[in-house]
Amino acid sequence: MKSFLTVLILLLLAIGSARADGPKPAEHLATLVESALSNNPELKSSQARWRMYVGKSRQAGSLDDPMFMFKLQNMLAREPLVFNKDPQSAKVIGISQQLPFWGKRALREEIAGYEADSYRWQLEERKLELKQMVTETFYQIYAVDHALRIIEKNLRIINDFITIAESRYSVGQGVQQDIFKAGLERSKMLDMQITLQQQRSSLAANLNYLLYRPSTTPVGTMADFELPAFSRSAQELTDLAHDKRPQLKNLISQANKGMANHRLARKEFYPDFNLSLEYMFREASMNDPGYNMFSLGVTFNLPLRQERRQAMLAESSSESDMAMEELNGLKSSIAYTITDTLAQMERRRRLVELYTSGIIPQAEQSLESAVISYRVGKVDFLTLLDGRLNLFNYERELYESKAEYMMQLARLEATVGTELVQEAKR
Prior knowledge:
This protein is of the alpha+beta class and 426 residues long. The protein has 9 helices and 4 strands. Strands 1-2-3-4 form a 4-stranded antiparallel sheet, with no helix packed on it. The protein is elongated, with a radius of gyration of 39 Å.
């Protein structure tokens, strides 16, 4: 009985180990992007900074706290706590409030609001960048995985070639050089396999970094897909980018902030005020009945330092001009990027169609024909290897083109600032 239980436990452990070492589950791009947006610490830092400036904007329009005052006025030095010997002696309480010139508080609040908005749009821009990086890494892994599968398939083909070459050599119909050539090609394939495995590990570590999870977290395979249909024009995408791109809105907020700063700088040519109210508690002394008294006053600064205020005007003008020129430059860059990306996407789409419907089927037929011809001695071994190499390169380029198409689409979405193809279609 004990031996039976031991065998059963070992069997269960073997099954569990086989499952652990088996193929990893397929990764889903939407899930990876959502995880990155939720966990990435750089994004969380940007969110915290935005919330910090939102808090600052709520403080900007507030008045300063009022000032309370208490003093003993005109006390006799000989009797410092006696209030009925001199009619001028009094206990005084007062309150004062600093009041900026009309419109300054609203402008300061407006400026702080534009600054908070700029950090909000920087956060949204960072989200687009992070999504693009995750997407690009996802499809790079997809291309590498398929390249590794193609290499495994070609290693089996070369092993078959070696078997064929050895059998022909054994009957005196081939040369030993063919066996050496096949062995060399196999070694080249193994070298390429090692390089691709290293690339896969690096890409997986990068993906884990973007998702803020341990670098050793296993990354599963990427499912195959069909290229999504896409037919939007460059002008349509450019107009959409002007409406959606967060970085454009960030620069608009910065330009508005500069213009509001300019209006505030003009207000600095006018004085700020301080209102005060004092109440004096007096006691009767000599012939004075000791009536209580009060005083009401207003003070204001004299804005005589014109050089400083002129410099504030120049600074605010330069701030808005800088933001507007950056805005114009970004619009030009967006238009170029959209046109260039669409051209690259069209090229990759046409290559995928060409490889799928034409080149790869023809290369497969050519290789099959070469194998048959080599068996009967009608072609040499070099022709056989060339056919195999051509098919290998075309298959790799097919998956690289598919991956590159999707990476260009991710670049286009980051440029425009919104999703252009639904995830379900990918």
